[in-house]
User: Fold this.
Amino acid sequence: MKTVYNDRHGQHAARHEFFRGQLVPAFEIPARAYYVLQALQAAELGPILPPEDHGLAPLARVHSAAYLDFLSGAWAEWQGLGGEGDAFPAVWPVRTLRADVLPRSFAARLGLYSMDSGTPLTAGAWPAAYWGAQCSLTALDLVLAGERSAYVLTRPPGHHAGADFFGGYCFVNNAAVAAQAALDRGLKRVAILDVDYHHGNGTQACFYERADVFFASIHGDPLTEYPFFLGHADETGAGAGLGFNANFPLPAGASNEAWFACLDAALARLQAYAPELLIVSLGVDTYGGDPISHFQLDRPEFSLLGQRIRRFGAPTLWLQEGGYATEAIGHNVLAVLRGFES
Ligand code: Q9C
Ligand code: ZN
Assistant:
């Protein structure tokens, strides 16, 4: 399997994030990608390619122009204000406040374009996210040209980012960008299966009222797990998209048997949809040793996941999302991809 590697990800290197009132060492760090790279190279999974630049237009098919403007210039603006360290939002336009008047204040716009304070905006966030999307588009090119599958080794992840906000360590929604690009290249039905521990709220929202992308997600129940405000089982799509969204929330601590029952159910729904392309948002924070998540998958289960996706039979684009047990992430991702290739 070919891998497209985002070699600018290292520019996005937060030192800290907020957790329970304290600044703690960041979880979403460059070492995550280095461990995966090392594992793929040691296993000789296949060639590791750089991204080709497809420009900003495919990102703008998913994200608002105002958001992309803000994100691409945010670090310079923050530096101009004398910002020291990474930028963290601290104020949001919640219910009864107006989000339709663009504030001049940087702090206010940082809040307007974000969903939480747990996502440090670093000096390299924009180049890392931009090139991550380019990797996704390059890997899509490979699959559309006839490769059975391709894997995108990138960070930051993407599935929490919405049309006009960042959050959950995500800035640009790689899965949504790739799905929209596939449709723009002539495909009629694209499926996204999100197996990250956290619900892919950004991806779901992008396609919630559309029938040309089926979004299915297995995740920790938002009643107790991030992103809290989306990902319930009663979210089945709206308008033309009614019936094309399927959420499988599981309680924190759920068994592997319960997880695979959801996987089977999700794949059955996607099979009935008969997509021309399957995009997998591959978070491996479902691992039992993950420091911020509460499922119990391990190498045999990751391998089985890969095998199930293989059996699904569609051309498959794998996109890296979460996974924070840094030293294990390479082995976990490799188990999935090898399971797929076996
Ligand atoms: N201190 C993804 O896996 N909150 N994002 C964590 C831990 C946010 C995870 C709090 C978790 C977001 C792509
Ligand atoms: Zn996650």
Summary: The chain has a mean pLDDT of 98. The radius of gyration is 19 Å. The chain has one domain: 2-85+122-341. The domain at 2-85+122-341 is CATH 3.40.800.20 (Arginase; Chain A).
